[in-house]
Amino acid sequence: MADPKLTDLAAYTIAELEQLAVRVTQEIARKRAVGRAWLREHGTRISEAEAPMYQNPNNAAQTWSGKGKQPRWVELALAEGKTLDSLASNDMLPAPMPSRRDVKREK
Fold first, then answer.
1. Distance CA 29, CA 83 (A)
2. How far is CA 35 from the centre of its chain?
3. Are the C-beta atoms of 63 and 56 separated by less than 8 Å?
4. 35 contacts 47 by C-beta, under 8 angstroms
């Protein structure tokens, strides 16, 4: 069963909630990468336009496709001297899992 503290978020400190938010965002990114790998493995085309191009390093839930007006967090990051390359979301996503064919060849 679920940890009672997990279901009662009021029991967490701010620091614990921030750590939990980072872990949740990382797990979501990992599961998306696994899903993309599965789609690639099964011959399904993936449009890269669907994925966000940039991600806020301070809040991974904030993303931007690179199209349209820059969000405030992008403007602030650029004002701090960061580059768009440093905000690229692909840097934060895990590498795709190898296909079954690749794994079988390695054995």
1. 22
2. 13
3. yes
4. no
CA torsion, points 66, 72, 73, 76, in degrees to nearest 10?
A: 110
Residue with tokens 């009021």: 10
pTM here is 0.40
Q: Are strands 59-64 and 54-56 parallel, antiparallel or unpaired?
A: antiparallel
For 64, other C-beta atoms within 10 Å of its C-beta total 19
Segment 37-46, tens digit of pLDDT: 888 787 766 5
Distance CA 25, CA 41 (A): 24
Report residue 7 as tokens: 């279901």
The yes-or-no verdict on residue 79 having pLDDT over 90 is: yes
The tokens for 105 are 């060849």
How far CA 60 is from CA of 26, 28, 30, 106, in Å, comes to 8, 10, 13, 35
pLDDT score, position 3 = 64
